[in-house]
Amino acid sequence: MQKKSNVIIRLVVFALILFVVNMIASKLYFRLDFTEDQRYTLSKASKDILNDLDDVVTVKAYFSEDLPAQLLSNRQDFEDLLVEYENRSGGNVVYEFISPNEDEELEQEAQQSGIQPVIINVTEKDQVQQLKAYMGAVLMMGDQKEVISVVQPGVNMEYGLTTSIKKLSVTDKPKVGLLQGHGEPSLQEIAQLQQQLSILYEVETIDLSTQTEVPTYLRSLAIINPSDTISDMDFAKIDAFMAQGGNVFVAYSNLKGDLQNGYLSKGPNIGLEDWLATKKVNMGDRFVVDANSGSVTVQQNNGVFNIRSQIKFPYFPMLSDFPEHPTTQGLEGMMLPFVSALNYTGTDSATTFQPLIMTSDMSGLAQTPTMVNIDKKWNENDFRDGPQTLAMAVEGPLAGNQNAKLIVVSNGQFAINGNPPQQISPDNVNFVSNAIDWLSDDTGLIDLRTKGVTSRPLEKLEDGERETLKYANVVVPILLVLIYAFVRKQRYARKKQKWMQGNYN
Amino acid sequence: MNKIWIITRRELSSFFDSLIAYVLIVIFLGLSGFFTWLFGNNVFVIGQASLQVFFQIGFWTLFFFIPALTMKMLAEETKSGTIELLSTKAVTDWQIVTGKFLACLLLVMIALVATLPYYVTVSRLGSVDHGAIIGGYLGLVFLSAGYISIGIFASSITNNQIVAFLIALLIGIFFQLLFDMLGFQFRGGLGSVFNYLSMRTHFDSLSRGVIDSRDLVYFASVILGGLTVSQAMLSKRNWYS
């Protein structure tokens, strides 16, 4: 027997203990990250960058105080991350949180620093109100400044913070050249790529007609989508650059797909194909078609209605399976329209080559020139040539005695935003940035760039097999339980019978 | 411990001797299977080698499944008077409550083990993040443990099973849905408290594959809290004022 009031006191004390334990636990905690890519643990790139910091980076985080709880967790995550950065950098990262909603001056300060408020709807006293929420940060080192206008939740947070610190701390950025003068896109036309490269590099345009050589201080030279003839003189300069160990990235299509007129043909000879051949990289003259492809929108007139429909278009290979290489780490998928196949013909043992992007097993080669026939019924016979290489890396003495690296992609368009600019898929940009990193011997940010975006596609299955698997997964577990029920019942019946016979053992 | 284990085994086998366990497990597996593989955004529609779909379905099916499992645990014993019989057998109320809790938890775990074919299928069709899957299952187990202790509490305050089921569901709705919504409505300290109380916050965090001590402390608190008040309610018959 116990006294009622004692029980109640005991319960109240217990509730208080739980409350206090939870309060303490929310401040003192640990985390075990079981994800395969250690998504929620600081990556090596971040740690390296923080270790190398030799000056203090001040982070001013402008976060509104009265955010809804879900957004508050974003602030909490950011603070957790900053605490970790502070510890890792040996105190070289210091931070403070500022609530800009408190007074107008702070709000103006935030906006002047380039932090954009996010407008969110909250319900208060039965009225929907719009709230200006600030979730940005300004990083300062010496007189330099970097702004994260909106702190993105999730894994992007680490990327944003680390790259901003990297931008501040690299005082003397290595230089990367972008070849100009042969119809290549300008820096503005490759805005997305330029922005990503600018974290680690200074991108410089190189016009060989005005320069006697490719500057040797360049870590690498990028030749992206040239359309006019490149003179032998220019190639000689590029060769001289490679002879001294310079590395080159080439993205170029030797085929032309004109969807407007439905005509597919070989492009004009601008000399690049021949130059690549001297490096033993041959570009094919047929179009690669892949059963695993993107689609085009087709407008069909159905008498009364205009119907827009999506039709699979094998000239747009979809790439999702990438060979193991630093340049392809963490890539999800790319689409490279109108490409030819690359072949490496070298036999020299000093030179190595590796395919970087390949089409699926169901790939074929289509003749040029040809007219596009959108209604063509594709069948297995069209895809009998096996996987084709669309990008490769070659390494060795390519133009002299010194080792040089060369990456070739048989599509020139995929990294260009164009004019007017169009957004391109982040993986296209990631691939080129990774390639430039690899060529420039700076692979530090590759891991971080594609961290947490890993796609884990399921294998493609025949319809029948897929249906079988679906129903099997629904039925098998239930069947297992029913079988168990049956066995148990049988056992019980046997036991019962034994008992009835007077056998109690 | 031995006594707890005896009660657990007795309860578990009484589940399997009656139809209840089979009916509940089959409904659970049927719903989970249907939504994971056949309907709407199923695994093949999403096309990713992950069981996130199943974990989100499980988050809801277990929410309904558990009150049905726990409703009779103490309510029936009180109604039929067998609780008196049980407590004369030199077991404490705490042992009864814990034993029954463990029996329910084991039953849920058996139901979860029956979904392992999902895991086998997905891991054969693509590269699976095993950590995230372990985290997901762990999340479901902790979530179930939390709801079981709430369910046992509901069952301890009434001798009517239907009432116990409804009370468990009502309390559950707060943890499952309302705290989450309130967390979004309120700002400042109150909002954080509601957000912290929401099962979803902690379940989502675990099912990403990250084991955070804060989530473990939260689930342990819910479980211990539920069991403690159940024990107190069960001992009510011995109270004097």
Automatic annotation (TrEMBL), chain A:
The keyword Transmembrane helix applies. InterPro entries: ABC_transp_unknown, DUF7088. It comes from the Bacteria. The chain crosses the membrane at residues 7-30, 469-487. The keyword 4Fe-4S does not apply. Residues 173-423 form the ABC-type uncharacterised transport system domain. It holds the Pfam family DUF7088. Residues 36-139 form the DUF7088 domain. Keywords: Membrane, Transmembrane, Transmembrane helix. This is Gldg family protein. It comes from Reichenbachiella ulvae.
Automatic annotation (TrEMBL), chain B:
Its main location: membrane. The chain crosses the membrane at residues 20-39, 51-70, 101-120, 132-155, 162-179, 216-234. Keywords: Cell membrane, Membrane, Transmembrane, Transmembrane helix. It is found in: Cell membrane. InterPro entries: ABC-2_transporter_component. It is a multi-pass membrane protein. This is ABC transporter permease subunit. The lineage of its organism: Bacteria, Pseudomonadati, Bacteroidota, Cytophagia, Cytophagales.
